[in-house]
Amino acid sequence: MVALGNINEWLPPRGPLTMWTASPAAHEAARAARQGDLPPSYQQTQHLWAAYHGKAMNRQLPRLMIVAWDIVGVCDIDAMTAAVNAHVRRQDTYHSWFEFDNGVIVRRVIEPEDIDLAPVSMGHMNPEQIRTHVLTTTPETLEWGCFTFGIVQHADYFTFYASVDHLHIDGLSAALIFVDIHLAYQELSQDAPPGPTLTPPQVRSHRDFTARQRANVANLTLSSPEIKEWIAFARDTDGAWPSFPLPLGDTWASSKGDLLTVELLDAAGTQSFDSICSAAGARFLGGVLACAALADYELTGKQTYHGFTARDTRTPGIDTMTVGWFASMVPVTVPTAGESFPEVARAAQKSFDAAKDLAHVPIERVLELATPDELGIKLPTCLPMMLSFLDFRKIPLAGVWAELNFGTYGDSLSHGGINMWINRHVERTTVTISFPDNVIARESVDRYIATLLEMFARVVERTSVAPASDAGDNEAA
């Protein structure tokens, strides 16, 4: 199973650490980089403003994703240097950094040939020292080079890690970093196994995606169907936008956070749930949303569930192998009172399918067109809760992750709200939830997870259908 958790759950081997970070010459080139006309993507804009305000308030916010896996043998430093530099030079999200000029975000663009990440030996470290090093040496969001890479050598294998700011990465990007760097290293390394080499596939531009995103929404007006749909959803919530249904305590006193991962379904339960969803006229995702909706009803009594689920907005064949922040939100509305699971699953699937293209139209675009009062909506008073579903079986090379000890880890910080990832693996289905690290939030999360587990168990235990074909879906990230 793929590890997904808090960085404190990452257990790299004790040993000598080598870090790849931008050279002084690369930093100088970044400082002198030309100004670009292209604004950041909407996802990046939100993150940059959060970083700007967080810095002003001297408050740490979640920003880093650490991706790690093991490689057999002694690391060929020259080969890894070439692999890391090739990755950063060909993925152009890394080529931009952003600054604020009188309240306007300005892009600076460094040329790929000016990028040079050099290895630096950091000496022997134990796991705790390694984790601290990874968190404290990766530059901040508002600096160029907010990404570092490294290896920790053990007797007969080494652990590779990438520590990347969310500005440049989403959930699927973790898999793409693996594809890029692991395959390149295997091809370049003197220890590469015999046989045909694997060349990383062609990569397109994240800046092109940003330009498309901006162009696609630029001409939208209050009369555009997509804008009307967002407004209708906002009015329907009446200010109670999708958020965690239980108390979270004092989320201002500390920005410390935690992650909890729990098995929802074992292998047999996962297959049964898939069959039940199919028989109900929904996909696995529809069933996941239905269980979340029924858990919300169980806890709050609300007869209509409003949720946000993540969707990857990469264009197949164009952005498929591009690292960057592509994930965006889809609003779903599901009636729950007195409904059976098949009815709720069908309603959830129908709502998602009808709204999925709204992932390409960020809610921020709606608020650029008119004020909330003019739109007749109430803005949320709580931080939004995001539910993501990902089928790991559909990700290229994911089949080798278990044997390589692949994992992704958060940086133990919280923005004060809740996010949830439900992931289907070959052998099970799990839920990972991030939350503020305080007593009240922990109690609420425990209660919520227990209720969610009960919803999934009810579906599998009370419904019996013939096995369905293993179609799977991979709609969110």
Automatic annotation (TrEMBL):
Domain Condensation: 69-367
Domain of life: Bacteria
Listed GO MF terms: catalytic activity
Spans traversing the lipid bilayer: none
Entry-linked Pfam families: Condensation
InterPro entries membership: CAT-like_dom_sf, Condensation_dom
Single biological process term from Gene Ontology: lipid biosynthetic process
Name of the molecule in the record: Condensation domain-containing protein
